[in-house]
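Q: What would this complex look like in 3D?
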Amino acid sequence: MGTVSNVLMFAEWWLYFGAAVAFYFLTVGIERIDENARGAYVFRPLLIPGVLLIWPLVLWRIAVLERNKPEGFGRYRPLRTAHGYVWLVLFFAIPAIFVTAMLLKQTWPADIPAVRLSPAEAVSQ
Amino acid sequence: MSGSKKDPFFVGYLSVPEGLKLFLIATVALLLGCFAALALTIGGTQDDPGDGAFRFDWGRQTLIGILEASPYPIVHVTKGTKRIPTGSTVLLSGNGKRGVQSRTTPLDGELVEISGVAIKRGNIEMLQLRGGRNGIKKVAGSVQMPSSKLLGRWRLSGEICDGKCFTGTMRPGRRLSHKACANLCLINGAPPIFVSSAPVNGTRFFLLVNSEGEALDNKFFHHVAQFISLEGTVEKRGNLHLLKADLSSLKRVP
Amino acid sequence: MSVKYTPVQWNANKYGYDLVLIGMVVLYILSFLNVAPMFLDHARPTDGPIVRARAFGTCAFLLLTIILCIGPLARLDARFLPLLYNRRHFGVLTSVIALSHAMFVMDWYFNFAPQSKLEGLLGANTSYGQVLGFPFEVLGLAGLICLGILAATSHDFWLNFLTPRLWKALHFLIYPAFAAVVGHIALGSLQSQDNSIFAIVVGLSTALVCGLHALAAWKERGCDKRGNADAGWIIVGDAGDIEEGRAKIIKLPNGDRVAVFRHKARLSAIANACAHQNGPLGEGRIVDGCVTCPWHGFQYRVADGRSPAPFTEMVPTYRLKLDQTTVLVDPNANEPGMFVEPTALPEHMQ
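A: Here is my prediction, written as C-alpha cells for the whole assembly.
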C-alpha cells in the first residue's frame, strides 16, 4: 500500500497548503483584488472549500490581478474551443464505457456443471 | 413580468410571466412524478441479497473443539450447542475485518474453547470470536484430529468471496460492487470461500486454498467477485470442504 | 453581481426553485427507503447502509442527468430557461447527495478494518488492468471531486475572480465527471445486479443527455450564420428582419458573435456573450430599455454595453452602418462599455 499512502499524503498536503492560501486570501488577499468584497464578510466562509480544492489556480489569479494589467477581450470571449472535447466525451467516451461494460457483464454460471477430472481416493491424515 | 403573453420571457428576479406558469407547473409535476416513480422502480427491483446473517438471535455460542490453525483457522467441534452441534466445523474470524491468526497460530492442533457470535449461510458457519482469551483459550484434554477425505480433482465454476461478508456479515456480500470490501477482508485474514454454481458432495461452498493447501497469495485478489472456473482437488476436512485450486487453471466464464 | 457579495441573493423564484429541488430529493429518498422495500419479498433485507448508499447514489445520478439536460433543453425551447436560472443550487444539492452516497459506502464497506477508510478505498482493489473488477470506486471518487470543485466555485465571486472564460472552462468538468460517474455505475452496480431495470435507466439517461446535446448543437449550427464581408464590414442582413426589442446574432470571421438589437426603431450592436456566464445576450429581450440576458437576467444598455448603476458589468460594443436597408457591422470590437450612437432606421421602416 506504498502508493496509496503517498497519494493520501499528497492529498493531505494539498489541503494544508489550501488552508494556508485560504487563510491569507480570505483575510487580506481578497480585499486587494476585488473591491466588491471589501466590507463583505458573510459570504467569505463559502469560498473556503473552493480555495482548498483549487488553490494553485487561486494563487495564479491573485498574481495576475495584482499586476493590475487590463485583461483585454479575453474576458469577454466565450470558450468555444472546449466544445470539441465535450463532443468527444459525450459521443465517444460515455457510450463506449456503457456499451463495453454491458457487453462484458457476466451472468451467474448456473448451467455450467461441476466436472470431475479424476476419481476420489480416501486418504486419512 | 416581461414579454407578451404569447411569447413570454422569463427574468429570474421578476415574477414568472403568465404565459409560462402552466408550463412550469406541468414541468415540476412531471419531475416530481418521475422521481417518485423511479425511486419505486429502482428501489423495488433490487436483487435478493441471500439469507446469510449474524445469528445474534442464537445468543453467544461457546464451543469446544480442535483447532486447525492453517491454512485458515477452523475448529472441529467436539462439544457443541443446540445451534452448532458436535461434529460441525466452523470458520473463525475476529471483529470486523480482522482475522484471528495471531491468536490461533500458537494453539494449532490443541483442544480449545471458542466463544462468540455465529454467522451462518447455508451449510457454512463462522464464529466471530470475542476479544483475547474470552474468544479462544486452550482447554485440557486431547482428541484426535478428524480424518480428511480427498474427493478427487474437479473443475468448478463460481465466484471467490470473502468468508466473512459472504457468510452473512453483509447482505449482499458478493459480486463486483463488493470486490474492494472482499479484498480488504481477505488482506486482513478472512478465509476466502469459493461459491460454486454446482454442488460437489452436497456442498456449494468451499474454503479456497492454493494447490499446496496453503493460504492464498495476492494474485488471487484480482479475480475476486468475478465469475470464473477453477480446477483443483476437493478435500473434506471434518465437516468442511476445501478446494485446493491451481491459479493457472483459472478462467473467466462468459 | 457588482454589488457587495452576499452568500446567496435570494428572490421568490429561487425559493420556489429550491423548494422543488428539495421536494424531489425528499420524495425520492423516502420512496426508495420506505415504500419500495414493500415490493421486495426477500428472506432477509439488504443491509440498511447499502440500501441508503443505493438510494442516495441513484438519486445523485438522476439529478446529474437532469442538470445536464437543462442546458440543451433551454437552447431547444426557451420555455425551459427558468430551469437554468438557479442551476447552481441544483449542482450544489447534487454534490451533497453524491457525498452522502460516498459516506454511506465508506462507513460500511471500508469501515471496521485495521486500515483507515481511505487506505481501504484506494488500496484494497488494485486491478487497474482489468475492465471487470476495475476499482470503480476511484471513478466515483473522481466524479465526486469534480462535482465538489463545481459546487465550491459556484458563487458569483468565483466567476468574477477567475473570469467567465476560465470559470466556464473549469465548469466543463461536468462532462468528464458525468463520464466517470457512468463508468462508476456501469463497472460497479450494474455488474452486480441480475435485475436490469437500473441498467435500462442508466442507458436511457445517458442517451437522453447525449441526444439532447446533439439536437441543440445541430439547431445552433443551423442558425449560426457567418456574415459575408463587404469592404471590411460584415453584412448582418436586412434591417426589417429584426423585431422590435429583439436581436439578430451574427458570427464574425474571428468566431466571435455579435447581437444586433432593435430598440425604439434604432439599431445597436453588442457582443453576444454576457459578462456574467457568457449567456447568449442576442437570445434575450430588451426589458426596461436594457438588453436582458436570458440566463440570469443581467442587463446592459444597448448603446454602451454597460449595466445600469449600481452594477458595473460591461460588454464590448460594435459599430453599425446601413446600406439602404442592409445592416453592416464593423468586425473590430470597441472597448467594453464604449458608447456608440445607435443607428436610426430609415423612416419607412420605423
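A: To summarize the key features: The first helix of chain C runs from residue 12 to 35. Chain C touches chain A through 65 residues (CB under 8 Å).
Q: Very helpful, thank you.
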